[in-house]
Amino acid sequence: MERRRYDLPVAATLRLQSRSGRVHVIAEARDDVDAETDSLEAFSEDGGRTLLIRSSRGGAKPLVVRCPLETDVVVGTQSGSVKGEGRLGVVRVTTMSGSIQVESAEEADLRTMSGSIEVGACRGSCRASAISGKVSVGSADAAAANTVSGSIKLDRVHGSVKARSVSGSIEMRASGDSPIAVKTVSGKVRIELPPGTEPATYFKTRGHVLCDFPRGDDCRIEAASLSGNIEVVPA
To answer: Which of 109, 153, 232, 235 could form a disulfide with 192 if both were Cys (CB 3.0 to 4.6 A apart)?
Structure first.
């Protein structure tokens, strides 16, 4: 295993690449970047605004990178999983079949084909897209999530929500004062709102609809499902 340290300008973005190896990026109290894998390559791009680090052999060995807190990170892999630990800045991840885990990010844009996506906290907007894997978000200022067969679970969203799935279920707890748009083909939809909320609701489904709130104008809810049930209930 090879280990090196690199300088990272304050406003620079850290870009990490791996073919099939796992990528683990750790944000901590430090001023430089510490990287470790089987064989390292590093390049300065965009006039020094981006630092690219990758394994020169492109093998299956993990790439472990420690960086300063609030660092903006872009990660790309083919089949390797990606894990972000600590308080990161803007995080963008694209992988074919690996799972994605992000503990804390300023903003997040996460995409995978067959892996799952798990986000602890997103202080801004969170976008997550998976084909067959599930999407789980602990908290976010705003969220947009898409799956084909995987489920979507948004534990706490303070702002607007957009969620779409084909056969997976969609569950969320929302603030009750921002728009919600949900669409699924056969999956169940469950939306939890604060007690006393009076939403403007627009439902379209062949399944059963349950709404425990009087109609008002606190927020707009659009929910459509071809055959799945729709529930809007108190949190």
So the answer is: 235
pLDDT (0 to 100) of residue 78: 87
What lies within 8 Å, CB to CB, of 74 at 6+ separation is 13, 14, 15, 16, 92, 93
DSSP state string for the chain:
-EEEEEE--TTPEEEEEESSS-EEEEEES-SEEEEEESSEEEEEEGGGTEEEEEESS--SS-EEEEEETT-EEEEEESS--EEEEEE-SEEEEEESS--EEEEEESEEEEEESSS-EEEEEEEEEEEEEESSS-EEEEEEEEEEEE-SSS-EEEEEESS-EEEEESSS-EEEEE-SSS-EEEEESSS-EEEEE-TT---EEEEEESS-EEE-S---SS-EEEEEESSS-EEEEE-
CB under 8 Å to 213, separation ≥6 — which residues?
193, 197, 198, 199, 201, 232, 234
What's the pLDDT score for residue 59?
61
- Would you list the domain boundaries of the chain? 147-235
Query: Residue 131: how many CB atoms within 10 A of its CB?
Result: 17
For residue 58, what pLDDT is reported? 61
pLDDT in the model for residue 234? 97
Cα separation of 171 and 229, whole Å? 12
